[in-house]
Amino acid sequence: MSDLTVTSLTDLNSNPVIHQMSLMGHEQILFCNDHATGLKAIIAVHNTVLGPALGGTRMWMYDNEMEALNDVLRLSRGMTYKNAISGLKLGGGKAVIIGDSKTQKSEALFRRFGQFVNGLAGKYITAEDVGISPSDMQWVSEETNYVVGLPGKSGDPSPVTAFGVYMGMKAAAKMQYGSDDLSGKTIAVQGVGHVGEYLVSHLASENAKVFVTDINQEALKRVSEKYGATIVSPDEIYDVKMDIYAPCALGATVNDETLARLSCSVIAGAANNQLKDEKIHGLEVMKRGIIYAPDFAINAGGVINCFSEVEGLTLEWAHQKAEEIYGTIYNIVKRSQDEGVPTYQIANKMAEERVQSKGSLNL
Prior knowledge:
Low-confidence stretches: 1-13
Number of domains: 2
Radius of gyration: 20 Å
Distance between the termini: 27 Å
């Protein structure tokens, strides 16, 4: 393992990794490698001005290590914004484990990862993310106390995440349609994993017309049968005649190609980094009259759930806090319309203002 530090201006200019850290304002990156368990992971601590960096661990089979690094850098910065805009006393961090979550998990791998987390001495607190379950986190907790989302405690953050997305979606609908009633609205949910399925349940209970897609055919069939949702293929989801597009899988699905196909007037989902390029596509969605609920603001329910565990608060508190996402999204969209700038810029500004009120932040 190695902990990256800048030793000179020459290093900064010649090392693309450290240069990228500097550009994005990261405090620290820890590369983790263990031959015996097959662990290959990266932990990125973006900012700890407001408190310890909290963010989940994702397990994914990246095409290469640079792709993994880019992902963890973007995700960790997003956690700083997410925690700040949610009013939590937490900084932003994230971890990725490079590997196949279906075939390469083991107790030894997660315990070794826990040792790396523990080596940061509380600067980073981890939790589950894509490809990780509460039981995986239980193995991590055998080696460190800096882990949340454990069985028997706050547990799976997905229900609170989905509830927050649902509330944020209703707020965006209120701004776009004059009412937050989703009954009769056509909503395309891309990804029916933990969060996506809980979101579909909320939408079905409100009698929305729901279309779903996922690469996991088993989960797709179960969700469709349980909630009466219509299945479409992963590529067809962009062509559904919809009111609301809810990306709940991986990021960058709002891009040049998909915007040419999407017929929605609201984008509100659980995925991180939904805009492929926020400067380009954040402006483009506004130009097209689409209300975009910034991802790190609308999907903050999960980190709220984790924070409740850190502070020893109740699940009821977490749900009440997640309900406030309605007001957060409403205010972001209103300010965006009043000031004539994209919603992502308003959300970024709101998060930065809170961090900057506590200390300096390079963003």
